């Protein structure tokens, strides 16, 4: 059985970015993915703690992850980078990683996906689906997901 974990790198828990990621996870076949809202862990990310350790273990034990981020300055959030830096090189080698990026412009969507894929590749994750969308297409999420998944 597949276990899917959604990791939202948005500093605001319950963000549109997290909602898009959850929706993609469901379309990929996960009825109830586990959700990690990094915005809820900001006080522990640099120093560790039970909640961060539990989030790391959830990722390690998953068969696939959906990593979602808004685009900040054409890349993924620092919050997400801090979390991903907690994993060793090639540690996520048995994991398929899907990427979600939400940005104001199409150019930022592309660069955010590229930057995130590079880091996930360094961690050994196998590439999955990439879902990038501009904020003006959030209302068309169903159509966008259908286009991406074919």
Automatic annotation (TrEMBL):
InterPro entries from the UniProt entry: Flavoprotein-like_sf (IPR029039), FMN_Rdtase-like_dom (IPR005025), NAD(P)H-dep_FMN_reductase (IPR051814)
A Pfam family annotated for this UniProt entry: FMN_red
Entry GO MF terms: oxidoreductase activity
Domain NADPH-dependent FMN reductase-like, residue spans: 5-126
Keywords: Flavoprotein, FMN, Oxidoreductase
Presence of keyword Nucleus: no
SUPFAM superfamilies assigned: Flavoproteins
Keyword DNA damage: no
PANTHER family: FMN REDUCTASE (NADPH) (PTHR43408:SF2)
Protein name as annotated: NAD(P)H-dependent oxidoreductase
UniProt source species: Candidatus Avipropionibacterium avicola
